[in-house]
Structures are given as structure tokens and as C-alpha cells.
Amino acid sequence: MKILYFDDFRLGILRGDEVVDVSDQVQDIPHTGPHDLITGLIERFDDYRAKIEKAAAEGPGIPVANVRIRPPLPKPGNIDCMAVNYMENGTLPEPTPINAFHKASNGVIGEGDTMVLPDIPAKIFEGEAELGLVIGKRATNVSQGEAMEYIFGYFNFIDGSARDMPPPTNVFFQAKSRDTFAPIGPYIVTADEIDDPQNLDVKLWVNGQLMQDFNTDDMAHNIPRCIEWLSSIHTLEPGDIVATGTNHRGLNPFQGGDKVELEVEGCGRLTINVRDDLNRTWDRVTRLEHTSGGGEGRYTPQTGGKYAE
Predict the structure, then answer these.
(1) Which residues pair with 132 in a beta bridge?
(2) Helix (H), strand (E) at residue 175
(3) Nearest-angstrom CA–CA distance, 227 and 192
(4) CA 259, CA 48: separation in Å to the nearest integer?
(5) Pairing mode of beta strands 302-304, 281-282
(6) Could you tell me which of 134, 76, 135 has the C-alpha nearest to residue 108?
(7) Over the stretch 26-65, which tens digit does the pLDDT of each residue have?
(8) CB–CB of 26/37 below 8 Å?
(9) Reported pTM
(10) Is 66 exposed, middle or buried (0-12, 13-18, 19+ CB in 10 A)?
(11) pLDDT digits over 177-191, tens only?
(12) What is the greatest pairwise CA distance in the chain?
């Protein structure tokens, strides 16, 4: 099942190229807005699934092209992002120690929305293509053997990043938690539709050019291990997001005017725009192209605009 919000946050189920409004079937879930309605549905999904499936099969459909798709989780309680969680196509000699960071839920945007690059002295802005998973039930000290039972579903996740912010240490909060820096969607795919989340192709295009292309089988710490480790630190709640990391070799500068598309296999395609009121520019090369070509430093240097060196 593919669950989404559309227009003024009506709850819908995707049926082919149509969306069926199932808002009436879930109105008795206690909620104050769309953020806790979807969380309440995730918590009670077994009780509502049959009713929703019946409405989705029998109800009138609206062409997806005629609606505005919204973020499927408008304000999750937690966004936990795995850090350096890929083997970079086998080029790393061993996995780095498991690590993660927290990202502000205010950064969530959805299909067709715009990532805004702020007026800050970042060396570069990047967006990391990732498989995002949605927690389905409260998880505390979960074992790897049980971890997959706690996943409600999956979607595309872009981890927006402002790199090399001053001071040179302890900058993850200001690098990662900017407004609009957490695009998700376009919908949640329930876990039963993804046979093997550890073997999914991940592709990201910028202005139609393929920039990131990898498979989730390259993770350094697999999904059960990530859930085990995260749930040993804090309780994961229904509707929380775990972003599983990226392969850094294809990271590239996001800049004003870009159209970015992310497709994790089985999760549809998420499309966002990028706006930069300062019109800063970078060469259109990936990290790997920059470093393998003898470029200085980890990142493609800024070529124009405010803060260019």
C-alpha cells in the first residue's frame, strides 16, 4: 500500500496513476492535525487496514497529476540519520564505527517543494540520496533479529547538508537541521511491498543527469543493526524516521535552479527544486570526480557568488 497526503492534507492511497481519498475512514483516530493523524494511523494500522483497502479499491480516483502531493509525515517526532554508513562501493577497508545524528523535523518538505539554500558561509550544499524507513511501533533495546518487525514502511529521503561551516568542529546541527533540508516522499510504501530493503537501487538525478547510483547492499551497518543501535540510545516511536545513509562518491553541489529527482527502487520518484537567492555557483562535478581529478580538498570549490574564495 502506498499512503500519501495531498492537497490540503487529505489522506490518500495511491491506485495506479490515481489517488483515492480515504480521509473519512480515519477521522475517528484522535488527532489535532495531519502530523498526528498519520502517526495515529501507523500505531493502529492493523485495525484500519481492511477498511482503508476496501475504500481504496472501491472509491473514486483522482488523477495524481491533478493534485498537490504533500509530505507523508509532515512533522515526525524524530529523524535519526545514519552517518558514513556505506562502504563506498567497497573502497573502504572496513566499516567506520556506527554513528548517527539527529535532524530537525521542521526541515521536512515534500514532492514538488523547494529546498532553500540559506545565506551562510558553507563551502558547498549537498543532498544525499537515501532510503528512509518509518518506524511502526515503539522500539526500545530491540534486537537485530526482531528489528525488521518494527518497520512500518519506506520512502525516498534526501539529507540536505551545508558543508564545512565554521567553527571546524561540532557543526552537524547547523549543517543538517536547516529549514527545507529534509525532503521526503512522495508517499510511504508499506513494508510488505518491499521484499528486500537491503537490495534496492538508489538513483539521484540533477537536471536530468544521473549523479548518484548505488545499491543499499553497500551499507556498512545493515538496517537491523541500525535499528538495534538507535533503539539502545533512545526509544523509537511510531512515525519516527530512520535515514539509512548514502554513498558519498556521487555527492555533488546543489545550487539555485536545480531540479533534483530521487528514486529508491520501489518507492516512486521524489522531485524537488532548489533555490538560492545569492546565485552561488559550483562546477557540475561529483565528489569523486573532483578528488580523482586532483582537486584540492574534499569538496568541489565554489566558483562564484557570495563566499567564493
Answers:
(1) 155, 243
(2) helix 172-176
(3) 18
(4) 37
(5) antiparallel
(6) 76
(7) 999 999 999 999 999 999 999 999 999 999 999 999 999 9
(8) yes
(9) 0.97
(10) exposed
(11) 999 999 999 999 999
(12) 60
Unique residue bearing C-alpha cell 536547516? 178
At residue 246, the pLDDT reads: 98
In sequence order, what are the residues at sequence separation of 6 or more whose Cβ sits closer than 8 angstroms to the Cβ of residue 273?
Answer: 112, 113, 114, 115, 257, 258, 259, 260
Task: Name the E strands within the chain.
Answer: 2-6, 10-15, 18-21, 61-63, 69-70, 79-82, 100-102, 108-109, 114-116, 124-135, 151-163, 182-190, 201-206, 209-215, 241-243, 259-264, 270-275, 281-282, 302-304
Query: What are the cell numbers at 242?
Result: 530512520
> 129 - beta bridge partners?
158
Which amino acid, one-letter code, is at 223? I
The answer to whether residues 76 and 103 touch, using CB atoms and an 8 Å cutoff, is no
* Structural domains in the chain, sorted by start: 2-70 (no CATH), 79-304 (3.90.850.10)
Residue where the block lists cell 540559506: 118
The CA-based angle 255-270-22, given to 5 degrees, is: 145
Q: What is the per-residue pLDDT for 171?
A: 79
Cα separation, 27 vs 37, whole angstroms: 8
